[in-house]
Amino acid sequence: MEEGLLMHLALILSGLFFLILLWLVLDFQLGKKKNLSLVSRNETAILHGNFDIFTHGKKLFADYFHELRNAKQHIHVLFYIVKDDEISEEFLSIIKEKARAGVEVRLLLDRLGSWKVKKDTIEALREAGVRFAFSNTIKPPFLFYSSQTRNHRKITIIDGKIGYLGGFNIGKEYIDEEPSLGIWRDYHLKITGRSVNFLQSEFLIDWHEYAGEDILGNPMYFPVMADGDIRHRFVPTEAGQLEQNYLTLIQQANQSLIIGSPYFIPCKKILAALLSAIKRGVQVSIIVPYTADHLLVQEASFRYLRKLIRAGASVYQYKKGFYHAKTLVIDDKICDIGTANFDKRSMYLNKEINCYIYDPAFIQRLKDILKKDMNDSVRLTLEALNKPNPSRTLKEGIAAVISYFL
Prior knowledge:
- 43% of the residues lie in helices and 23% in strands.
- By secondary structure, it is an alpha/beta fold.
- It folds into two domains: 47-228, Endonuclease Chain A (Endonuclease, Chain A), CATH 3.30.870.10; 237-405, Endonuclease, Chain A.
């Protein structure tokens, strides 16, 4: 009798597991199909602006907080992560102070990325006059798919005249105060000139979608400004658009291709394009962290890095802290800095925004930064990757199955 009950229970549990798995697959596929039917491309033509680049959080936030405090009319902020710590409190205190002083402040945060922002914190922001909304909330009918699609953009526009875009979020690790990660290495752009208008429009499109306020046509948010000196364009992506962008960039390389990313998990097409580039004589260099900040992401990269190293690529593991920068440099003609990682999540699930820069002097400046980062790295070798390690092998196997979601 007991054996029969156990068998019956096992059959029920197996059936439930199958139904849950079927629901997850159908939810994800149908949600993806619906999302693909709604998105459109919105990249700019060639623009002209002025740029500065920050590679260290303390210097970035000193400048960023200074510009926030000097805002006169409006502040529009979109972050993936704002945490519950001292620097987050300083940031929120600044924007509350500006809102009380009459500056229009809008703050848009990713719902899961900024899960540490508490209800009472949001109430305090709204009481101070800050307009607040969460983006990418989990919602029916596609609960699993919507839980995976994140707004990974990190942009700020101040008075419509100053823009920020890059890899830094708001939290103590970004200013080197997380001992397990050490010094945080990232790339973040400060932009002035007429092209800031496009960052403004992208923010307001997202704001309309998630906050329900349509102010995109209001000219007060788009002041008339002169062009800057640096040729560039902005490329927002979501729902698979980034894959084709990366393919196009890689195929343009003739001499060298440098990739910097904290997570290196390319799709089959991108991996094939990189291998093809190596075959035609392109020197491919990849910078990744030596120490991972998330479970399995490093193990997920090893299967791809083995193939690339075997083909002739150089892989550098950054050791002077944690490497979080997101960049591609194609020869001496294009560099890409933005919010997108070189992984499947950024390619297929996240909203991202990148900036393609075509200015030779700026590209050389970035290559000098990358050269320093390579000097602060160790080369990853096939010998190290192939050395017997049962724990790593198990993690690689698990990571291969779920790499789409890492």
